[in-house]
Specification:
mainly alpha, two-stranded antiparallel sheet, globular
Length: 172
């Protein structure tokens, strides 16, 4: 799992650089890679909750939606505009979403206090999975280039929520 996380971080760095390069082709500006935050070594109850929340929102949900968006864009993007880049990003984002679920499984399967916190946080997130912040994604079409519609993101979101529920049920 650690090697997968390191590979995912390197891929995200490449995604950012590839997108910055594409943006530079459109507007002629030179873009720099943003600095990454430096994590601390301290882990307390708040950190466990935050880690589960970030893994769910960014890893499981965000990466899954990003994969679908990149796939939809690649399907209609002319090769010279980055079809190969977007196809690669879509495949890698799918792997990142899978890694998010692996990490969540690890967290909710922990014994003791940290496992309890992880399960409680995931349960809380799943209870609010259809809150307005999620609904905007569920009903938002992936508008692809040239105005051609592509599939909605709702199915991707629904699959992630069901997978999260199954993961939590298997841990309890």
């Amino acid at each position: 799992m650690i090697q997968s996380a390191l590979r995912a971080a390197a891929e995200e760095s490449r995604h950012t650089q590839a997108c910055l390069n594409m943006a530079a082709r459109y507007d002629g500006a030179t873009w720099d890679m943003p600095a990454l935050p430096v994590p601390t070594d301290q882990v307390d109850d708040k950190n466990v909750s935050e880690f589960v929340r970030e893994t769910w929102m960014d890893g499981c949900i965000g990466e899954g939606l990003a994969a679908e968006l990149a796939r939809a864009r690649a399907a209609v993007c002319p090769p010279e505009r980055g079809r190969d880049v977007l196809s690669t990003i879509a495949a890698e984002e799918n792997r990142h979403a899978a890694l998010g679920f692996e990490i969540l499984k690890y967290m909710v399967d922990l014994e003791g206090h940290r496992g309890e916190i992880a399960r409680a946080e995931l349960a809380h997130l799943l209870r609010h999975a259809h809150a307005p912040a999620f609904i905007q994604w569920r009903d938002r079409p992936c508008e692809a280039a040239e105005g051609r519609p592509s599939p909605r993101l709702g199915a991707t979101l629904d699959r992630s929520i069901e997978r999260g529920r199954a993961l939590l049920a298997s841990a309890c």
